[in-house]
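Escalated from tier 1: iron/sulfur cluster holo job.
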Amino acid sequence: MKRYFIHTFGCQMNVNDTLRMGEVLASMEYGATPTADNADLIILNTCSIREKAEEKMLSALGRYRQVKMQRGALIGVGGCVAQQEKDKILKRVPYVDFVFGPDAIAKLPEMLKRVIDDRARVTETAFVDSEEYVFPTANPETSRGKATEFVTVMKGCDNVCAFCVVPHTRGREVSRAFPEVLKEVASLAAVGVREVTLIGQNVNSYVGGISFAQLLLRVAQVPGIARVRFTTSHPHDLSDELIEAFRLEPKIAPHFHLPVQSGCDTVLKRMRRDYTVAEYLERLAKLRAARPGIAVTTDIIVGYPGESEDDFTQTMKLTETVRYDGQFSFVFSPRPKTAAGMREEEWGPVPHETKVERLERLQALQKRISQEISAAVVGQEVEVLVEGRSNQGVDRRSGKTPHNRTVHFDGDAAIGSLVKVRVDTATQSAFYGKQTQLIEGPTQVIVESPWPDAESCDTPEGTPQLH
Ligand code: SF4
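Tier 2 regenerated the structure:
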């Protein structure tokens, strides 16, 4: 059997695309290998949301060159950098065999055939922006052994945020018909998956025959499903109906990632975000009234072109006002083809050292707030869905709370169980404690999953979001 290795960068959409690539390759009798050194096929599933991610791709390609020279491994580049750069990658890196965009995963067999049989170097980066788009679907057999899974419900983005490369790399919005989504969720629940995360670049603008709020409510009713999450959202799609769904259905997990990007209306306007800070806060207040205690996280860009010290101070104030559970914050980096990338000089570039200094201030503030929120949970019991062994010790398990906090704990519950854990200590992003009660065992006997994690682009808090 031939072996493949996929190096994943970036967001949850990419993690999910990697899983789907694995399934296509399994159908061609390729097996996964945990390191590139003994792979016959190496794929880099890339991210272009920030410049640093592209640098990481090039540096990883440099490392894999040795494997190509020693074993003749084939090397493919997929994901958003591939979509953006197309055959420029083949010109720039002569040992890359094929380049393919996110819409071409299903074409992997055809591409590999051309590479192997015709010795061709192949580029497949056409968008499929129509009903003909075939959504990547999880194979339940590869999901057996997992407590959580992603389910793609839409792809692409029709917004035009001035800083964002996603519309150029993922194309227009296409929603998946809701019966297909429900069928996939049911097939995952049947092999023991307890939590599904509905994903899409702009997930709450879903229009697959029912509204996104109705989709969440329907997914929550699938037998065996204990929790439903989703990512990532645009504030203008946080409708009253979606807020009502949070009030009505406790299985919709109490966590909302609501990217604000800036706390200053002038900057938001230049970002082409179509809300003001006051409107954002009004939506958030409604959400918090519907689901008291809901965890809220966000994305923030620091040092956007033209951002003054006063503008930045308003972002700090917003952070204090909202008291986010967590933030993904980054310094602005201009991306190709975006308005902000092309007009940075005109709007006024922020010096790099100023950007970094502001980012440090913002992250220090968020760290304090996250630590305060975590400290308030010490001594309490939290519900945890067990996802696997903890990397914090052999006899420990790990999982997540409904609020999406990672918990490492002493206990022996099987993957897929719901347990109570008493929290003894807490950091900014994780809780540590002991299992006190088994609430509910797994719905299937399941084993550890071998799938790899994505490589974080550049944040200490996790993988970057898209909005
Ligand atoms: S930031 Fe989000 S909503 Fe805006 S263009 Fe990018 S993907 Fe679309």
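The pocket of iron/sulfur cluster is lined by residues 157, 159, 161, 164, 166-167, 201-202, 234, 466-467 (CB under 6 Å).
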